[in-house]
Amino acid sequence: MLETHPPEEIRERVARRLNDPDVAAWPNPVHVLNHPKNHGAWLDIVMNELDGEWYEERNPITLAPGIDIPVRLQTDQGRGRTMDGTIELFNSLKGPKKLDIGPYPPMQSRPFAEEHDKMFRWYEYWLKGIGNGVMDEPAVSVFVEGSREVVTGAQWPPKETEYTSLHLRPRRKLSS
Length: 176
Prior knowledge:
alpha/beta; four-stranded mixed β-sheet; single chain
C-alpha cells in the first residue's frame, strides 16, 4: 500500500481502520497502523478486510495450479495449524510433491524437528541431484493418532476412504 497510494490517502485509510472496533480492540494491528512505515507487509494485511479480492489473489490454493516446481508440505495435527488447507494445497499442486502429516505435537515441541531427515533428503534430491530414492516413496505420509502408526499412499485422503456421517447426540456422544 505504501508504494501504490499517496501518503494522504494512507493517512485517511489508516484513520478509517483505527475507527473499526474489530481492529481497534487488538494492540498489534493498532501498532501496525500507527507505525505503517515500520511494518509495510503487515500494513497490507491489516488494511484489507478479512476476506476479498486482495486475499484471494494471494491465496496459495488459488496460486497452486500454476506452481509446477517440486513442493514438500508438512503439517502437524491439532494446535490450530491449517491441516485442511495444507491437504487442499497438496491436492491443487501440479508438479512433484510430497505431504507429511505428523502427530499432534507435545507442548514444547519445536515444529518439525523430528522431520529434518526427510526434509534434507528432499532438498538433496531436488537441489543437489542426489539419487536417494525420495521420489520412489509414497507421496503422502500420515501419522494416525490412536494407532501410533504411519499410513502412506499416493494421495490424501486415500481413494478407498469410506465416509460416515456422524451426528451429535446428548451427553457428548456421536452416532451414525
